[in-house]
Amino acid sequence: MDHDADDTARLTLDLLEARLRQAEYTIYGHLDGNANSRKRKSVAERLHELEKGLDVITAKSKVAQDLLKLRARHPDLFYSPDSEVPPSLLDLPSKSAIVLSSAASFPLTASSLTSIRDTPIPEAERSAKIIATRPQVSELEALQAAQTKTIASLKERTAAVLQRWYSVDILQSGEHWAEIEGRIDTMEQGVRRAEIARQEEEATG
What biological process terms from GO does the record include (predicted)? Predict the structure, then answer.
């Protein structure tokens, strides 16, 4: 029995020393080379060195100091969420208040769960028929995708035709009308000048 206890103690110390070396490597970037010599010491000596090593890390590492401060302020952050009995910092009245604040949603949740439980499961024959239509559904999906692609192509062509119609017919027609109006204005100006000249000749004659 004592031999088993010693083995358990040594195994526990090995695990603790491994964690300590991992912490040292994370903080300092290197490991102490005396790991093998530690295992040849007694359990009490190894435990004392573990405590000493932790004290050294705590004293020299600001990261470790900050972690200890954070643990003191928020201890719940250092517990695993997978624990069977998660720690709680709330007293019983606070827990009761949380439960009572959500009490109004309990009937709705219970009704939803009951509805799910009472939903009948389709018969096997009907399910088999639905599964058998899967290839047809896949074909329809492929056809729909092809139609969507065709519609997109037609939209692009329509937009191109409208753009060409606007550029060629509308804009060019507008340019032609502007040119014709310019010629008409020029002719009207010439007619007015000729009329004025004729009137001046008649007045002087």
Answer: cytoskeleton-dependent cytokinesis
Contacts 24+ apart (CB under 8 A), 167-173: none
Q: Which domain covers residue 40, as residue numbers? A: 2-78
Q: Which helix (H) or strand (E) holds 95?
A: helix 92-101
- From residue 155, give the alpha-carbon distance in Å to each of 75, 167, 168: 63, 18, 20
For residue 146, what pLDDT is reported? 92
Reply yes or no on whether the pLDDT at 175 is more than 70.
yes
Residue 52 lies in a domain: yes
| Over residues 167-193, mean pLDDT | 79
8-state DSSP, 77: G
Residue 193 placed within a domain? yes
The letter for the amino acid at 149 is K
Render 9-36 in DSSP notation, one character per residue: HHHHHHHHHHHHHHHHHHHHSS--TTHH
Q: For 7-17, what is each residue's pLDDT tens digit? A: 777 788 788 88
Yes or no: say if 118 and 107 are a contact pair by the CB < 8 Å rule.
no
Cβ–Cβ under 8 Å, residues 35 and 21: yes
3-state class (DSSP) for residue 69: helix
Lookup: tokens for 43: 């359990």
DSSP tag of 41: S
